[in-house]
Amino acid sequence: MSISNDDLFSSALALPPDRRADLANRLLDSLAAARRPKLSDDEIAQEVQRRSAEMDSGEVIGIPWSEVRAELRSRISRKSES
């Protein structure tokens, strides 16, 4: 049995805000993954080497994971409060 889009949407709206935000993010991620070009192993290796060279040369400065995580949590919190 299949559920209609309207019924699915109504069910999703009944979820608490944090679960709706999680569902929305997961759906958006699934769309982004479908649009992402498929890279070969060689293309991935070249990209890793390029980015590594940028880091080594100082052309790009990384952001510590603790800062990235804090920023992501802040954004998620703001979205779920909306």
UniProtKB/TrEMBL annotation:
InterPro entries: CHP02574_addiction_mod. It comes from the Bacteria. This is Putative addiction module component. It comes from Pseudobythopirellula maris.
